[in-house]
Each structure stands twice: as structure tokens, then as C-alpha cells.
Design brief:
The chain has 79 residues and is α+β, with helices and mostly antiparallel strands. It has one domain (3-73). Helix content is 20%, strand content 34%. The chain is built from two helices and five strands; from the N terminus they run H-H-E-E-E-E-E. It has helices at 3-7, 11-21, and strands at 23-24, 28-29, 33-39, 46-53, 58-65. Strands 1, 2, 3, 4 and 5 form a five-stranded antiparallel sheet that branches. Strand 2 and strand 3 form a beta hairpin. The chain starts with a helix and ends in a 14-residue tail after the last strand.
Length: 79
């Protein structure tokens, strides 16, 4: 799935796609969990940031990007 296709999905569809095909890369906790995911696509794929809102008991897709700069806020292991 391409980023433009993912962007057109409903909130529920985005969460389903992430659960089925996404790889969680890290986790950050500041009042709610934030996690970046990688979704495969042609080329390098793309990245999606998901936030868990504990007061609402819900997941929010915060932003998505084809560029890994989205990951700058997360402590990721170096390869």
C-alpha cells in the first residue's frame, strides 16, 4: 500500500492496516504511548506515528511520512 492510499483510509482502516502489516519500531511514553510504525510499500515504505490516549482508551494516527525524519523523536537502536 502506498502512502497516498493509506492517507485516504478511515481511522479504523488505518489501525487495521497497521496491526496487520506494520512493524512497531520504538515506544515513547509521555502521558500516553507514542509509537512509530513502518509500513512496507514499493521502495522503502513509509512511517506512521500512532498515539495511545489512555483517557479515551483509543489510538490516534498522528502523522505519516515517506521520510524517516519522523523517527527523530524516538530513541532507536543504531545498526
Amino acid at each position: 500500500m502506498a502512502l497516498c492510499q493509506f492517507s485516504q483510509l478511515t481511522h479504523t482502516e488505518k489501525i487495521r492496516v497497521l496491526a496487520a502489516s506494520g512493524t512497531r519500531l520504538a515506544r515513547r511514553w509521555n502521558g500516553g504511548g507514542c509509537s512509530p510504525y513502518h509500513l512496507p510499500s514499493r521502495g522503502r515504505g513509509f512511517y506512521v506515528e500512532v498515539r495511545y490516549a489512555p483517557g479515551l482508551n483509543s489510538l490516534e494516527v498522528m502523522r505519516s511520512s515517506a521520510y524517516p525524519a519522523l523517527l527523530d523523536a524516538y530513541p532507536l537502536p543504531r545498526r
